[in-house]
Design a protein that fits this description.
This is VOC domain-containing protein. Helix 1 runs antiparallel to helix 2. 20% of the residues lie in helices and 32% in strands. With 240 residues, it is α+β, with helices and mostly antiparallel strands. It has a single domain, classed as 2,3-Dihydroxybiphenyl 1,2-Dioxygenase, domain 1 (Roll). The chain has four helices and 16 strands.
Length: 240
């Protein structure tokens, strides 16, 4: 048995505003979160929740992961862009070329996301959240495949992607060159050990796959804070 990906967590200066934005974009419901924030509950085949957690730190630099949202037509793409802008998003330039068909936006706290043009073959069998696209090495793609038990659905030219056997978004890593890491990531994964599992045994397994234990962001004893082989933070929660 492997860990379950239970949440993608956003550090937020205004968790309620950020949660309302993503609830409006994705059509997910909001709920109170026992882990000190606000949680969004998926209304589709996404295999994880979104948590918005309070922080006083301001965003600096580009996030190493972002959502790729799919479109069924050019009109559908434009509707997603217009809905996002009405909810508080803005257009940004991260070096995309004019001939590229996707639209790059930032949410109210500056977290980047893309609205992908219709006809994208790689995301053709995905729903609205097509992928969580990450900056990362081939090694880290292999790590997360082993950590979650999700098979590789792409492994070419040092680019990797995994997907749950039950569907949902892909998680992709673009390979080198990697962005320099500056401080703690604003987005991180929360994992839960197998049901009735031993958290320490799962932490030991993740270490054997290449993770390390760290202290950044520790809040009490409800979670163990770790980093994957590329240094990206994630948390292993207490079994329920």
């Amino acid at each position: 048995m492997t860990s379950q990906l239970v949440a993608l967590c956003f550090d937020a200066n205004d968790p309620l505003r950020l949660a309302r934005f993503w609830a409006g974009v994705l059509g997910w419901e909001m709920a109170n979160d026992p882990h000190d924030g606000i949680v969004l509950l998926p209304s589709d085949d996404t295999r994880f929740r979104i948590r918005c957690l309070p922080t006083q730190e301001k965003k600096t630099g580009q996030n190493p992961m972002h959502f790729d949202l799919t479109s069924t037509s050019l009109e559908d793409q434009q509707q997603t862009v217009e809905r996002s802008l009405a909810l508080g998003a803005r257009h940004i330039d991260i070096g995309q070329r004019p001939e590229e068909g996707h639209v790059v936006l930032a949410d109210p706290e500056g977290n980047e996301f893309c609205v992908i043009e219709p006809g994208n073959n790689f995301l053709a069998d995905c729903r609205f959240i097509g992928a969580l696209a990450c900056d990362g090495s081939q090694e880290v793609g292999y790590f997360w495949s082993g950590a979650l038990g999700w098979p590789l659905v792409w492994d070419q030219d040092q680019e990797t992607a995994i997907r749950s056997p039950h569907g949902g978004p892909k998680i992709t890593w673009g390979g080198p060159p990697l962005m320099p890491k500056t401080g703690k990531n604003r987005l991180h994964f929360d994992l839960a050990p197998p049901v009735h599992g031993d958290r320490q045994a799962e932490v030991d397994r993740l270490v054997s796959l290449g993770a390390t234990r760290i202290d950044i962001g520790r809040r009490g004893g409800s979670r163990v804070v770790m980093a994957d082989p590329d240094g990206n933070e994630f948390c292993v929660l207490t079994p329920r």
